[in-house]
Amino acid sequence: xxxxxxxxxxxxxxxxxxxxxxxxxxxxxxxxxxxxxxxxxxxxxxxxxxxxxxxxxxxxxxxxxxxxxxxxxxxxxxxxxxxxxxxxxxxxxxxxxxxxxxxxxxxxxxxxxxxxxxxxxxxxxxxxxxxxxxxxxxxxxxxxxxxxxxxxxxxxxxxxxxxxxxxxxxxxxxxxxxxxxxxxxxxxxxxxxxxxxxxxxxxxxxxxxxxxxxxxxxxxxxxxxxxxxxxxxxxxxxxxxxxxxxxxxxxxxxxxxxxxxx
Length: 262
Known about the structure:
The protein is α+β, with helices and mostly antiparallel strands and 262 residues long. The chain folds into 2 domains: 9-210, Bira Bifunctional Protein, Domain 2 (BirA Bifunctional Protein, domain 2), CATH 3.30.930.10; 215-260, SH3 type barrels (Roll). The protein is 27% helix and 30% strand. It has helices at residues 9-13, 34-41, 89-108, 169-173, 179-199, 201-211, and strands at residues 25-28, 50-54, 75-82, 112-115, 119-122, 125-137, 140-150, 218-223, 226-236, 240-245, 250-253, 258-260. The strands form 2 sheets. The chain has a 7-stranded mixed β-sheet with strand order 1-2-3-7-6-5-4, sandwiched between helices. Strands 11-10-9-8-12 form a 5-stranded antiparallel β-sheet, with no helix packed on it. Strand 1 (25-28), helix 2 and strand 2 form a beta-alpha-beta unit. 42% of the residues are buried.
């Protein structure tokens, strides 16, 4: 099922039509981490909106220091650098999640969902992850958005312990994903939702709520090594996930310091 499509910056950039994202696109055959590469470029403001892609990364990482491992050319491994970002990190993460879910849903022809803080779910299984990082330099804050999307994996591609919880676009759609086409959709969608986040955060929140797998459900979260349990009642663009705790209190949980207990 694994595809032979090579990522090509010229194909992706052709008629892209974005305002900010994809002004420059770099594709590596192999690199240590696309987030690290994008962070270096983001030090210079002329590289705002630059996109780094790789067929393979040797030191890919996910949230909380977890490794992101995928076979060569099986996924979209992408990092977007915003050299001067004035959006709240929580809102930026929400906008990115909506954008990734939208792009995957259009490609897979099945509605993708968002599992806060950084997972995208398709038909009940994880298909993508997001890692947002901030870098401060010279009175500017650069934001790096790392995105990994499973495309060509078969069920056997995943370790046995993940086969019940992970999936790919090829598995779910029954076809071979065109990674260049999906990347173009991803960049277009991210550009759109990034602009919306700056103009009207409420629109981003509304779409996040429509795609959330957790809104209205009972959750247990770990925050500062403490466990909190309650019902998810919303999301705040600055403070994070909102839980109505079993104790009766309403509490906010920022994504950077919070994890969902499985």
